[in-house]
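Database export, one record per block. Field names are fixed; values are copied verbatim from the stored entry.
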Amino acid sequence: IEEINSGMYCFDAREAFRALAQIGTQNAQGEYYLTDILTILKNEGQRVEVLELDASEDMYGINDRLQMSQAESILRRRKNEALMRAGVTIIDPVTTYIDSEVEIGADTIIYPGTMIEGRTRIGKACEIGPQTRISSSQIGNKVTIENSRLKEAQVGDECTIGPFAYLRPQAVLHRKVKVGDFVEIKKSTLGEGSKAPHLSYIGDAKVGKYVNIGAGTITCNYDGAHKYETVLEDGVFIGSNTNLVAPIKVGTHAITGAGSTLTRDVPAETVAVERAEQRHLKKMKKSTPHE
């Protein structure tokens, strides 16, 4: 057997229902056959054509979750193959999940365990993964994203993200931005060359060019009822473990001392430090040596 009927039809609905009224049960089984419509329409001089499929898997039926997963696997395999033929390197296609609408530039490398979803666009010569999930985001050229989650984000050329970074909706990174491990960015823009290397939360913020955000920095943007904006102008240096209580603005080339909690605007070219004075108190009880 070299040819079979898949049982899939596409009709002009009006003509199909009209022809259905003419079919009968004059056959060995005494049953109504949908295929009799084709003979009726052809005898009336109407257009009847056969579509020959390139692969038998194109006509697989989907009747349960198992068959649905099998069909999805076929489509993912085809997408990965098309990307690889176009110059994208996929290290392990079996563990790489890329939606049909995704676009990826040549010479980009996709590492295992990566999921790229929605209308994501990825430029040329990027390195994505492993264990990275990107949804409906725009990624420039020569970007590195490792073990991270991006959702509805925009990333400029030559950015470095991860490991374990989280870019939430409306996160915008301009060229050569670094977002390091355990950094979360939400509804914020980071200017060219700025860095948030470790353990920070940046929300509802406008960050200028060449800003350094020290480890443990938090933009305190929510008071329980409303969100407020933080502005860090060009060249700002934020010391480690700084709390920026919004609304707040830190002026050009200002510095904040490590461990500060700032609630007021910081003028340009100044150093802002807010800490309790360090004191050394006598111990109430003498230490006992460990045995």
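Remark 1: The chain is about 15% helix and 25% strand.
Remark 2: The mean pLDDT is 94.
End of record.
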